[in-house]
Amino acid sequence: MLLLNFYIFTCLLSYTFTFAVFIPDGRESHSSVLIDDKLYFSGGIIHLPNITNEFFYLDVSKPFTTTDNVSIPWIDLTYTGGPQKYLVTACIGGKNNDMIFIFGGSSLNVNQSFVNLFDTNKQRWINITSVGNVPPLRYYISCANLDNGLIAIFSGFDPSKSTITNDLWIFNSLTLTWSLSNATNASLQMYGYRAVTLPDGNILYIGGNNSTGYMPMNKSISDPTPSVRNYFSAVLTSDGRIIIFGGYSSVTVLGDLWILDTTIFQWSIGKILNPIVNLTLNGHTATLVDNYMFVAFGQFGNDTLSSKIFMLDVSRKDSYKWVTEFTPNTTITTVTTSSSNTSFDSKNTSIIIGAIFGSIISLIIFAIASILTLKFIDKHEIYSY
Ligand SMILES: *[C@@H]1O[C@H](CO)[C@@H](O)[C@H](O)[C@H]1NC(C)=O
Ligand SMILES: *[C@@H]1O[C@H](CO)[C@@H](O)[C@H](O)[C@H]1NC(C)=O
Ligand SMILES: *[C@@H]1O[C@H](CO)[C@@H](O)[C@H](O)[C@H]1NC(C)=O
Ligand SMILES: *[C@@H]1O[C@H](CO)[C@@H](O)[C@H](O)[C@H]1NC(C)=O
Ligand SMILES: *[C@@H]1O[C@H](CO)[C@@H](O)[C@H](O)[C@H]1NC(C)=O
Ligand SMILES: *[C@@H]1O[C@H](CO)[C@@H](O)[C@H](O)[C@H]1NC(C)=O
Ligand SMILES: *[C@@H]1O[C@H](CO)[C@@H](O)[C@H](O)[C@H]1NC(C)=O
Ligand SMILES: *[C@@H]1O[C@H](CO)[C@@H](O)[C@H](O)[C@H]1NC(C)=O
Ligand SMILES: *[C@@H]1O[C@H](CO)[C@@H](O)[C@H](O)[C@H]1NC(C)=O
Ligand SMILES: *[C@@H]1O[C@H](CO)[C@@H](O)[C@H](O)[C@H]1NC(C)=O
Ligand SMILES: *[C@@H]1O[C@H](CO)[C@@H](O)[C@H](O)[C@H]1NC(C)=O
Ligand SMILES: *[C@@H]1O[C@H](CO)[C@@H](O)[C@H](O)[C@H]1NC(C)=O
User: Fold this and answer.
1) H or E stretch at 126
2) pLDDT of amino acid 99
3) Ligand 10 centre and the CA of 350: distance in Å?
4) Is residue 383 in some structural domain?
5) Could you tell which of 28, 45, 47 is best to mutate to test the pocket of ligand 2, judged by most ligand atoms within 8 Å of the CB?
6) What residues make up the domain containing 316?
7) Which residues contact 125 (CB under 8 A, 6 or more apart)?
8) Residue 188: closest CA among 173, 168, 172
9) pLDDT in tens, 96-121
10) CB of residue 10 inside a 6 A radius of ligand 2
11) Does residue 361 form part of some domain?
12) Number of structural domains in the chain
């Protein structure tokens, strides 16, 4: 009986386990954005060359190990019905900075709207019906947040025209309206660049290319200079370092790390203490979570899609280190529902919930089975007599 109970328990546990754990496949040209302790991912190319509508987040309030894909607390939100697009860019906005706005990108749906809005509080998508002046469709853009809920969209690749334009559009995430900026002295048209908003409110546009060449990486900056590139990643640290990683240049996928000190506008090569052999990526995203740069997904130099998260410890200015263990900086306050002294700090909560659920079911089955067994014994004993 105990063995049977154990068997049922194990089945229930593995059932819960199988259905609770979501492990995303490799993808590229997706978007990512961090809101509180959730790192959201949307769209991209999956199972080359299909476009996905997958939408999910990584719960960075929990610890995990990147080399153990089952330990990574992914939460799938695809059921909410997000857009099926790639070559997109995402920025946060709204009154409380709890809205995700996904701009541009390529879709098979000809009616796909230019901007998609996800309310992270209500956990649902909201259709935006933009009236008036709306930017024409464009790919390979990078949005940048400005004050007062404004988001800037610059240039990009317009599939409907042979030429791209260097127009700057401003989206008001509070009123959900667009305006075409009259900013003077705009850079040349470009796509595949990265936009970074500096603390002084200026937006820095880095890299990218146009139909005839790549943008220089050192406009008004003396050497050394990273090689020209597009489809790379860029993050800004709180102490004013822009960290760029990887990208694509002509036929080469890159894996180098460069640091732009925005207090003196000088590039330097990022010294990685433990470089990962042959790690080259493009079409990935990078997001800063505390002192870690999360390099997520993308396409490796050997053309396979990455399903991995690479975490770079960026806490030091002079040296960088790949790490595989993530520990949230805040103390986890989990409501203790178990009477045992089991530690909550090492596994996916869904697995723990599954285990508790499994135990309860198992106990109930045990109780019923015990009663039945007792009854059977009773009868048996009666018959024996
Ligand atoms: C880390 O700590 C900072 C400041 O205490 C907080 O703003 C941030 O949300 C924390 N990050 C995570 C992932 O909990
Ligand atoms: C791409 O999607 C189509 C339609 O859903 C499917 O038939 C095809 O097998 C997919 N391709 C790959 C490589 O998964
Ligand atoms: C998770 O990792 C295991 C072991 O490395 C691997 O066999 C499996 O394919 C991975 N699962 C996914 C969905 O990537
Ligand atoms: C796109 O929208 C138009 C007008 O509303 C509609 O007629 C058409 O069927 C839609 N196409 C698709 C693929 O949904
Ligand atoms: C948004 O629009 C799509 C297509 O037009 C529709 O299928 C969907 O139900 C709408 N969603 C909401 C929340 O109105
Ligand atoms: C741009 O427009 C704003 C108001 O919309 C105006 O205040 C500003 O002077 C304009 N700048 C130029 C260079 O035209
Ligand atoms: C635009 O460029 C011209 C010529 O280089 C310069 O004189 C002017 O100050 C610039 N305008 C702004 C707003 O930076
Ligand atoms: C710009 O980048 C795209 C994508 O990598 C590429 O197809 C195109 O050839 C590039 N342009 C030049 C001039 O290299
Ligand atoms: C494209 O970029 C190259 C390199 O930065 C530049 O020389 C060229 O003028 C640009 N072409 C256009 C049409 O902007
Ligand atoms: C920018 O970098 C190029 C090489 O990519 C170099 O030829 C040029 O001198 C650099 N410009 C400055 C201002 O350092
Ligand atoms: C790195 O790439 C080279 C050249 O493609 C290959 O020979 C080597 O085996 C790779 N090393 C690893 C550890 O994958
Ligand atoms: C492609 O490169 C990545 C990163 O170096 C490596 O992990 C992966 O095994 C490679 N895949 C193939 C099929 O060579």
Assistant:
1) strand 124-126
2) 98
3) 53
4) no
5) 47
6) 25-335
7) 80, 81, 82, 116, 117, 118, 119
8) 168
9) 999 999 999 999 988 889 999 999 99
10) no
11) no
12) 1
Q: CA 25: distance to chain centroid?
A: 13
Query: Is there an atom of ligand 6 within 6 Å of 184 CB?
Result: yes
Instruction: Please state the atom number of ligand 11 nearest to the C-alpha of residue 278.
Output: 1
Looking at this protein, which amino acid is placed at residue 81? G
Residue 201 class from Cβ within 10 Å (0-12 exposed, 13-18 middle, 19+ buried)? exposed
Cα dihedral 10, 13, 18, 24, rounded to 10, equals -130
pLDDT at 366 over 50: no
On the question of pLDDT at 334 being above 80, the answer is no
Residue 222 belongs to a domain with what CATH number?
Answer: 2.120.10.80
Confidence of residue 211 (pLDDT cuts 50, 70, 90): confident
Q: Whose CA is nearest to atom 4 of ligand 2?
A: 50
d(CA 292, CA 309): 11
CA distance 156 to 142: 8
In the chain, the percentage of residues whose pLDDT exceeds 70 is 80
Q: Which of 329, 331, 332, 334 for a ligand 1 pocket mutation test, highest count of atoms within 8 Å of Cβ?
A: 329
Residue 253 in contact with ligand 9 by CB distance below 6 A = no
Q: How far is CA 239 from CA 21, 200, 218, in A?
A: 37, 13, 21
Q: List pLDDT tens digits, range 147-181.
A: 999 999 999 998 877 677 899 999 999 999 999 99
Q: Which residue has the tokens 């024996």?
A: 384
Atom 8 of ligand 6, nearest CA residue: 182
Residue 379, pLDDT > 80, answer no
Q: What are phi and psi of 142, to 5 degrees?
A: -140, 115
DSSP 199-218: TTS-EEEE--B-SS-BPPS-
Ligand 7 site residues (CB inside 6 A) read 184-185
**Which amino acid makes up residue 361?**
I
pLDDT in tens, 264-313: 999 999 999 999 999 999 999 999 999 999 999 999 999 999 999 999 99
In total, the chain counts a number of residues equal to 385
